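B., you asked whether I could sanity-check this one before it goes into the benchmark set. Here's the sequence:
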Amino acid sequence: MATPHINAEPGDFADTVLMPGDPLRAKYIAETYLENVRQVNDVRGMLGFTGTYQGVDVSVMGHGMGIPSVSIYAKELITDYGVKSIIRVGSCGAVRDDVNVRDVVIGLGASTDSKVNRMRFNDHDFAALGDFEWASHAVAAAKAQNVPVKVGNIFSADLFYNPQEHMAELMKRFNIVGVEMEAAGLYGVAAEFGARALTICTVSDHILKGDSLSSADRQNTFNDMMTVALEAVLRDKGVHATEKA
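And here's what the prediction gave me:
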């Protein structure tokens, strides 16, 4: 059953997989939030785990950096392991004045400078959209947990160090809510192979203001994002979600 990039056995992955970029972050999520955890993948150090959250089966696995990397893992999870939903949980930058560091961002759609979706859509524009039901679950979970969120169009960049200095101002003009490197590719793969996907990010830096979080602050805000994602999983499974007082 193993693929070139995943050595898990059939049935090792839950229907829903949470995917951060960093495999060590996947390990942290599994050890911090899940019970009955077991490691199911270690090819190329891209660690994957399966456990339960409040009795619901959930998997978590790293996807690496960039659209090519996330596309490989997402495709194999869907087509070879029967995964139905993939939720990217990661960090992003901000450009809008009303989006600040610490904010949690939900990517309803994903623009990109990558050509991957044109390649899969016969060189036409493809609207890379997250799953609306998952987005609804995430927004409801955030409200129940008193976690402020911004929902909108994010931008998936091919280059982390972008030589086009005008891009940040252009993205601000077009109301981009967050800048990251994977969502558009993930949404394209999900659409092509019949799965559901969503991206939830923590704003770690503001590209125009120059603000950024310390390591400790990133960890605390990341925890808010993970609570939103996991409570959204419960809502998707029809399980009563917990609420903060």
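One thing to flag: Residues 112 and 156 are 5 Å apart (CA to CA). Otherwise nothing jumped out at me.
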